[in-house]
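#random but structural
TW: two for the price of one
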Amino acid sequence: MSDTINSPLPRQVADAYVDALVALDPVTGTYLGVKESSSKLPDTSPAGQEALAELARETLARLDEAERRPGADSDIERRCARLLRERLTAELAVHEAEEGLRTVSNLHSPVHSVRSVFTLTPTETEEDWSAVAERLRAVPAALRGYRESLALGLERKLYGGPRATATFVEQLTEWSDMDGQGHGWFEDFAAQGPDALRAELDEAARAATAAVVDLRDWMRAVYAPAVEGAPDIVGRERYARWVRYFNGTSLDLNEAYAYGWSEYHRLLGEMKAEAEKVLPGAETPWVALAHLDEHGTHIEGVDETRAWLQGLMDEAIDALDGTHFELAERVRKVESRIAPPGSAAAPYYTGPSADFSRPGRTWLPTMGQTRFPVYDLVSTWYHEGVPGHHLQLAQWTHVAEDLSRYQATVGMVSANAEGWALYAERLMDELGFLTDPERRLGYLDAQMMRAVRVIIDIGMHLELEIPADSPFHPGERWTPELAQEFFGAHSSRPADFVESELTRYLSMAGQAIGYKLGERAWLRGRENARKRHGDAFDAKAWHMAALSQGPLGLDDLVDELSRL
């Protein structure tokens, strides 16, 4: 009995897990603002993957004991324990299926993590840059470990998708030669460092670029031919596993597929009505959106666009704080940035460090463009910035002491976060921020993209039949080719974006459906809470309580939101 009394509570177990995780994964450490991580990179080999899995197993065993301790049944401990168990169990299922031996993607792989972490590594002092140099020297070992994992996957006939492989090879080529002169991304990054460390930084950056070239050559000469003819889709068993990983729940996939189609039909009707205001007589909403590409409101210049997006987020904070949210001063700060060359096509967000010394940031990939239509920016920045990802993830960081470091950071459930961000777009529409037809049609177009994601992500990976009432190939079974055609026909996005997105869905099965299904969970939770409280329902209080409870899987999310 005394051992149980003296054992840690679930939140303590969760925080001990974060400490151990940072020791094994310095990339996570950098995201959390741990200075000691700045000079290191993780072991991406099979042995490194197994070390992470063993940590998860040990943590689950400690959690079993912690849940028996007096006080473990309080709401705050119970939520943390529920999340930690669900997340680690889902991660172990992915590991034990050896998915880490075939992780090839245009967005989500150890190599992408290695590159992107440099954009978050502190670079303010000479000491910081000395750590950067050491981290650059660690790049070759990290890339060799990744190659070792993929090589073992080939031995075991666990293949990454050919399409993702081809795209990844193209990315490695770009990262190794940014200017056609053999000057790579790491060298560009190192060039920002101080003159006192110039020789050291340049040498380390050249070695990092050489490692990228070596990996690219092996991928092109060995890996790509080996996986040629392998399916890009994952099938029902692997798909269900990844859905659990990204969404924190075991979904009824057929019901979710039907829901995607119902949202498609609803949104198409709204888009047609809004398109008529933009371009009367337009044959389709996307004809009206194409008209806006040429004749709509635009921002000219990359720097000007970054500044305009900063202003959009600042305006949203000023309008929402005190009315629909109650924001701490440090949560109010968010920075607009331009994504580094070689990024995937979609905008993204990175959260603040644990002490807010690095604020939350939104990132715009320019894809070589210098002119940006407003209709395509506004709801996207409500999603990525305010009141979307930034308000949720920064609030988690702000209340981390009331939650746990785990809940506030690495315990995130993708569908929870993406669902909130899509809910945030809808909230801004509900609050009247999208009365301009251009902006509202852009918002509906973004909503349609999320509904299409549900349809094609589930449809192509499970090879489902297209319904009889579909205007597109009714009765046929989904393939990646049909999915790309369908996406392209129902999106204002350019062809290279559509292609990048399809590669993402194929290499991150089950992730893309979380936006729309997560939004549905948030809407259900709000509606249930509103019914409970009646006229006394306080949207500001509900929003802040909802944002302060930390991440949960979708089933648990609806339950907890309904109680607030």
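TW: number two ↓
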Amino acid sequence: MKQLVIAEKPSVARDIARVLKCKQKTNTYIEGDSYIVTWALGHLVTLADPEEYGAQYKTWDINTLPMLPKEWKLVVIKQTSHQYRAIKELLCRKDISTVIIATDAGREGELVARWILEKSGNRKPILRLWISSVTDKAIRDGFAHLKSGKEYEPLYHAAAARAQSDWVVGINATRALTCKYNAQLSCGRVQTPTLAMIASREEEIKKFTPQPYYGMKALAKGVSFTWVESHTNAARTMDRTYIQKLYEHAGNYLTVTEVHKKAKKSFSPALYDLTALQREANLKFGFSAKETLNIMQRLYENHKVLTYPRTDSRYLTSDMTSTLKERLHACAAGPYRRIAGRLSMQEIKANKSFVDNSKVSDHHAIIPTEQFVQLEHMTNEERKIYDMVVRRFLAVLSPACTYEETSVKGQLDIQGQTDKAVFTAKGQHILSLGWREVYDTDAADLEEEEENSSISSQSLPSVQEGERLLLSSLTVTEGKTKPPAYFTEGTLIAAMENPVKYLEQKNKTLARTLDKTGGLGTVATRADIIEKLLSSFLMEKKGNELHITSKGKQLLSLVPEDLKSPKLTAQWELRLQAIAEGKESDRHFMREIEGYTLSLIQEIKSASGTFRHDNLTRTKCPNCGKYMLEVNGKHGRMLVCQDRECGYRETLSRLTNARCPVCHKKMELVGKAEGQRFVCSCGYKEKLSSFQERKKKEGKSATKKDVSAYLKKQKKEAQTPINNAFADALSKLKL
């Protein structure tokens, strides 16, 4: 008898099959003596659309709401139905005794496999493979410690309850809003509060009034001193008259009153979880949250050099400490060779700063695996993300940075006043770089460093208490307070993780709940939520900033208050976690969701709001004759019919990979048929036909694939014997 292993993706299935010595390959599975390894392609089975529950739901009618299925139906996703049928056939084979679920170790991964098994009517025993990386060692260890599928049934119930509750609330509320206001309006318990956060930030920026502030700088003995208010220690004041008076009556000497020297340490920032990695990658490289996740997934699945990416923990478990040296050996290549090699020769002291079992739920922090890395096989984007993770891993294992901080306080005589102006200066002298050596000169730019650990570049000369320093200059400084910054994808991801400040009522219990459950959505879904808000035109990008659209603002004015607050998600996630732990019934939870949905639909039906399209054009839809809307899609501008039932759309322009010959920026392609032309933001314009002709004359440049193939060919030729075929032919000639 054989065991059937179901992985989530083909790449993971191939790795498992290799370790299990399965060699007989087909298009849908790989078979061996004891195991058959097959795979899903993400979700193969999903919840049925409303139309499957009755003919009355085929048309969108507010009078048919709410839709509350008594028995949930599962349907096979058409695009990947061939793979589902293949798995079902394998499950029916008489020589299969057991099913091993090897999908991603998490709530959603559990759902992927369980829905396949439920839809196919599986009755065979289930085992569970639970691993955080797909290296050969991790796979072997995982199969040596398989768990019973029954242990993970509560996790499956929680996953199904999450999907069903989102279906009930999301589909009912979306249909109700769309029917009532005849506009494509979608909402949900995660996407709507996220949109509300963007609106709240924009309102805060709009209402912000800059306030001027003033201060003073003094230069003496080559040291820059900053004025501080003697009572509050603040380095600036809003009172211009006061600071001007100090400046006009200041003496020429600054008397040193205090000199303090103190040895200090700064410790490495914590290991990455997915949110921290997405935030920093967006800040450093402009990667979107979805882009970072996709790169991480490739490094995890294809290259197998990093651990499971969809984690919300920044800590490791104690049982992992024995593997750290092996991981150091594996990543000791290229720029990491020297430091990784040195750390692997030293004793690694695990401490609470990065090893804490209580702070790891499903998955530990993102770190390198035991798989030896081949940097030359990575794309430029993959190298950047890998570099971030490895350097953080090396930094955490390195000793603290030690430095001596010197603080100097001085007083400046003010003529006609008994009070004296107080000035301070600080300087640091690094004794040991410690973890900062990992980052070289970039250490001071780390976003996550605490303020008290940043090392100033100012070097202080030797000064003594009581010493009088002649002023070289004294200047009044001024500035204005700044509003909060617009959200970027990186900062929005961080806000979704910790949305407590966006609760209208500062409820400590809810705040604790949001903190415990990880905020809005999960690390695995936040990137998709942002993509959905962009693709449905509820928000848009201006450069790297995220702005709410008019459509988004109107939606927030029409949607029930409950759906705009993170409070709902906090309550749901706490309940789902209880279900996953076996402490609560999923059926009881769903009954409450149904009651909530009834009240939600009633509130939408009785509302008195209106929706107005403010992006209406004078172009009529060729299908129905109604005026069309101009919207900014993710890849360009398009016209969309205002009648949601018509659904006609037409592209006006799209961003291409064609580069402007003047400024080298990406150009937009506008127009139709023969009239198509490229347009650049710098003002350059070129007909498509002229562009194509120019490219023909310039000749096709070599792609990365061409270069790689050429280098491989050169390497192969370098390794072949000198006596090649031509030489052999000459040697056989009898002269």
